[in-house]
Structure formats: C-alpha cells, structure tokens
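Quick one: structure tokens for this chain, please?
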Amino acid sequence: MAMRAVFLLAVVVGLLGGALVAGARCALDAGSGTSGGGASAGATPGSPGATAAEFATAWSNGDTNALYLLLSPAAQRAYPPELFDAAYRHFSTELTLVSLDVGVESAEEGRARLAVRASTAYFGDIEYSTTLNLASAPGGWVVNWQPSAIHPDMVDGREFKSTIQRPIRGTIFDRNGAELAVTRDIRMLGLNRSLVRDRAALTTALVEFGFTKEQVDAAFDAPGGATQRVRVGPVPDEKVEEASATLRPIPGVILYFESMRVHPLGPAAAHVVGYTREYTAEELEALRGTGFRAGDRLGATGLEASQEQVLAGSIGAELNLAGPDGAVLRTYVSRPYAPGRDVQTTLDADTLRAAHERLGSRPGAVVVIDPATNDILAVNSSPSFDPDAFERNDAAALAAITAAPGGPLANRATTGLYSAGSTFKLVTGAAGLAHGGYTPADRLECSAIWYGVDPPRRNWEGAQGLLTIAEALMRSCNPVFYEIALTLYNEADGALSQMARAFGFGAPSGVVGLAEEDGQVPDAEWKRAATGLPWFPGDEVNLGIGQGDLLITPLQLANAYSSFMAGELRTPRLLADAAAESRGAIPLTPEQFDHLKLGLRLVTSARGTASTAFALAGYTDFAGKSGTAEDAGSQQHVLFVAMSPAAEPRALAAVVLDEGQSGSMEAGPIARDVVLAALN
C-alpha cells in the first residue's frame, strides 16, 4: 500500500522530464549574471578564455571526463576522478537538474567568471555566477579546481541538500467512511516486449486469463523502446496467485505494483465522484519547475475535479546549503508541502449501489436526499461508465465508452434538462393557494374535457367530479391545474413562475462539488425576449401541468420537494462540512403546507395514481408524485418523487427515465426501492 509518509526524493540526472517553471528565476548568489549560452566565440587558442570556454561547454554537456582533463595536476591529485565526478553528480541530484547552460562572462590571466543557468525540476530556473581559478601550463591554461567552481557557496565542505515531498492524493469517503475514491498500490501485469518469444501464444494466454485482446494489442503497440515496461492491465486480488503461477513464467511477462487511483463503487458513483486525468503538455509547461511531471494526474470530473485543491495537496521543495555536519546554513528555495486531504461526503455507498442497480440499463437519473438535513445520499445517471478505465488509460475501454449509445459520460442528474410533467402540479397547487384565492376546502371540477382555452383539452382519465387541490394531486387531474393556472394568469400575473423559482427551479441548486445546469422557468419576459411574442393564456396553462418551455434537472426536482417538506428552499449538501443554507421561505401558510402534503400522501394511497406500486403492494408509509411529460415527436419521459416516512421523511428519491409510458408504474417502483435502501 502507498504510504502517506513524507519522503526524500533522489532525482537522477536525465530521468526528469521538462518540468520547469516558465520565466521563474532563483538567484543563488547576490549578483547573478546572465548566461552566456555556452562557450564564448572568438577566444584565442591557448588563452584563458579558450580554457574557460572549453570548461563551460563540457559542463553544459554534462561531460565530467572532459572537465577533468582541464584540471591542473595539483587539482587532479587533490580530487581523484571518482571524487570529482561525485561532486557534480551530487550537485545535479540535489538541484533536480534537468538542463544546464554555462557561458563565459569574462576571462583573464589567473581567473575566469562563468554564468550558470540551471533548469531544475523542482526549483525553477536558477541563475548565478562562479569563478574558475586558472593557471598557466605548457600549451595553454588549466583549472585549479575546487568545489567552489561549481558554486561559490561550496566552500569548507559545504554542499547543497534538497528535500522533496510529494503528496499522495486524499481519499473521498461516503458518510459512513466507505471509500469512494482512494489511491492504492495495484498489482499490474506488464510486458518487456524484447523478451516475448511468441506474441500470438502470449496473447491467447492473457485473454484466457481475463484480459481483453484490445488490452494486449494496445500494450504490444504502445510507443517506447522494446525493453521499456508497458502496462497490460490490473490483476484482480483474487487472481494474483494464479497470475504468479501461470503467467509470470512466460518470457516477457512482468508483475509489478503501480500506485493508482481507484473508485470502489465503479459505475455506481462514476458521475458524482468522477475520475482523474493526466496533465496535458501545455499544463505541464505552465507548471515548469514546480515538480509536476509527465504522468502526474489531476481531477477531471465530479468531486475529483471540484475538490482538486483539497485532495491534491502540494509538492514541498526545499533547497538548502548544509555544512559538513549536515546543519542547514542557508535556504535558497522553500516551497511548503501540504499533504493531500481527505474529503467526506454526505453520500451513502449502499444507496448509490441500489440506485445504480434499479436504474439498470434504462437511461435516466436518480437523486436521493434526506429532507431532514438536505444531505444528498446518491446521485446516479444511466448509462454509466467505469471511471477506472480513465485511471488505467485503457484505450480499448475508453473507446468503447466514447462510442456507447446514450452518452454515458453525461451526468443526467445535474445537467440533463427535462419537462417536469405532473410533478410540477405541487408548485401549481402552491401558487393557487398562495396567490389564486383558493383554499383547502375549495373543490374544482375534474371534467372529461376542459374548455378554458381554445382548443379544449381532454382529460385522458375522464371525469373525476369535484376535487380539492389535495385530491387533484391524488388523481393528477389536469383540468383542475389548468383552471388554477388560468386563474393565476388572469388575477395574479407572474405568480406561477415566481412560485416555481421559490421551489428552486430555473437556477442552480448551489450544491458545492457538482456542475449543474440552470434549467428554465418561462414567463412573459422570457418569452418576449426569446420569441418577440406575448405570453398567452395557453402558455400559463401548459406551465400549470409542467409542460411547455419549463426545463428542470433531476437534482432541482429532488431539492424542490425536499425544500417543500422543510418549508424553505435550501442548498443541498454534498460535502459533510458544507452548510445547508436557506435560500428563502416557500410562501405558504401552515394550513396550506399541510393540505399539499396530504395530497402527496394520497398519491400513494389506495385511491391515488401510484396505488399499484405503493399501497396495494403493501408500502403504506410513503408520499410522492408522478409525472409523464411529452418530448419531441411521440416520445415521453416519466418521473416520480417518492419519500418516506410520509409525515417526516428521512429519504426522498427523484427518478427520471428518459423513455416511458407511466411515471407511477415505471419510475415509481424505482423511487420506492431506492428510498427503502436509503432507510435501511
């Protein structure tokens, strides 16, 4: 397992990628010179300048053998080759050197001054000047070398020491401490292609073991040298022994550990938790010199992306000058280290799994909220995907995800826009009670045909008699809500749209951690701006049953009903340390709230439209509301909001299915079962 311990990173020259801070400079002396870009032109052969230029070129090229040949006999006696080479290697390692540019600033008898520009992986670009002591010799000049030739501060046994601390990414937990995203050491199977004797036979063996042919082919065809290790894929824990016994003996097969981000719930939490990605070349260029390198990862979607600053931590890098006893004498660069911190969410792993399983292959979304706290327990979108395919950079799996029908990468729960259908009737009833002059005692005609606008509108369930608003919710009677909407149009212009916004529609929920769409609440101002036409009675009537130009997200739907039960619009909580902030009261009296809540309980009763999935099936302590909404052409999507216990719900599920015929019969059972899972 990867350990969260701080560690000292020894960086080998030439193994670091081009991770330099663009434009960053760190002067290691008081009077930093300008790099001369290698040997100075025009130096007279045999002159001090020629020797200085040759030294500068050899050092820029990392050729310590050539450097050593320029030393005086006295210097060579004082510093044997291995000691001389070790001094330069130590300097390169401690500075995390990537490249070096040494030029000659000046040269005269007895001395030369060099301008050094060191590009480093962790400390940016470092510029300084140093002095070469020169001595005359037959045929020219030689270097009376001392360690101060590397850097002027390297005197009296002083040398550079660096400490590098790379954080391990924090873990994302559910509300109970279950891991939703964690960095682990994963057993991987790889190949040394230079040792493979029979590609076809090896491919067959790996496919029989459980890898796909696409994975194996991608490994064989991966860029890089034949001896470079290439990844095939992870080995499941339960098959490690089998892999060791049957695959490891095959020439070219390698079993090794690789630190990798994994998401234990897989597709069940893919959209809300997200995944990571590698930094792009452009991003690495912008981060040059800060320690970021090819292969480093950052959050790409979901909580992995929104909580990047918390999860990632920051690379610590300190460059010091130490005395012979190891004591720090001077600090040149100090970049603070911060460990990756964990993130605890309000999510519930079991509820996420249940929602994923109940959605199955049906395109749609589920959002589960605890109305008592407004904690989000689950956010699911279908179709989903394996987030770890991105962590593995599994080309075959990623291609399949991209090509899959239904857009599995889209998070329908927060960015899918749908008509609310009859789930919006709760809002219409609220507006009628608050602004339309209606009371809980009033009864309205649920007729077979409603003649309030032209052309008349048919009630597909037929006449239901005189109904209170609560009973109209129970029967989902369109004519009653048509009538309420028309009354509001005539007597309380804009009240229905205002009530919709009081429920949170038409604006982001404000949840921290997820990207979401605004949705749309149409009104006269919106229509005039969008079409140049006035707002007609038919527009208001369409809005009254959640049709027309109204667009909502499943998250907004869940939060609207949860907020209604609390009496105020609240920001849903996804992070355990976030606040469920109030965004304003829903303008209803206690009597009006009670009447509408009665209607939601009646929906699931033996007389309600959802009786088959609830009361008649033995599920009696529920409340909810169904919806069926028309899309383009003949397609419909269906919705259901269910909650339990009915009086004081502790779990509420909003379900939207992209295709369907009945919200009560199709979305209702899914919402019911997910609520039960959340309560268990």
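Residues 1-25, 29-41 have pLDDT under 50 and may be disordered.
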